[in-house]
Amino acid sequence: MRKLSLICLLLFSYNSFSQTKEEIEKLKAELENELKQIDKEIERTDKLINEHDKLIKDVDDNIEKIDQIIDSTYIPQKIPLLKAPTTPLTDEQRKKAKRDYLDGEVTYWFNNILSEDLTHQIFVNYMVQVEGIKPEQIPNFTESFKKMLWKNFYESQREDMLQVLVDSKMEVHKISKHQIAQAWDYAMNKYVKRHNLKQSPGFNPGFSIYNYKDKERIN
Hints:
Elements: H1 2-72, H2 91-99, H3 104-114, H4 117-129, H5 143-154, H6 158-170, H7 177-195
Helix pairs in contact: 1-4, 2-3, 4-7, 5-6
């Protein structure tokens, strides 16, 4: 009787062990399958990241190519220059400059931004290379025209400043306000970076440049 009980216990234990082993094997197979799925998702994600990085690189390369074309294209323009102050301005002179846009520091920035050959060349080159405008369609910045333009620009009325450009016979040549704005902002961005104006202690705090590439406001 005792032997029979022992045999029954052994058989029961064996069956239980067999079931447990099968369950372990089943769980192991399920885990391995889950790991394969996870590896597939990781591979898919890596592929998407690589494609995204490639797209960003393509965009950066295209921007660089446009910059190179614009910077390397020389279109000579005769632009009259105004006399700029040779010594740093005092606070009182800066205040006076705010009252009269042709005095002191305003004249200095007027001279450097609107009269500088390179800035105007960049402006014209952008219009020609990117917007497809013919060079002869773009008028020179004459002295009287620049005075009107600067007054609006200095007073931070960018829309008014752009309207001055539109009114200066560009409208006759079918050049849109949007095209002018794009070219102007591009030229201003180049000017700001070229002269590192963010760190210039003499840069008038009342003066602002809006809407260039990195969307910052320069004061």
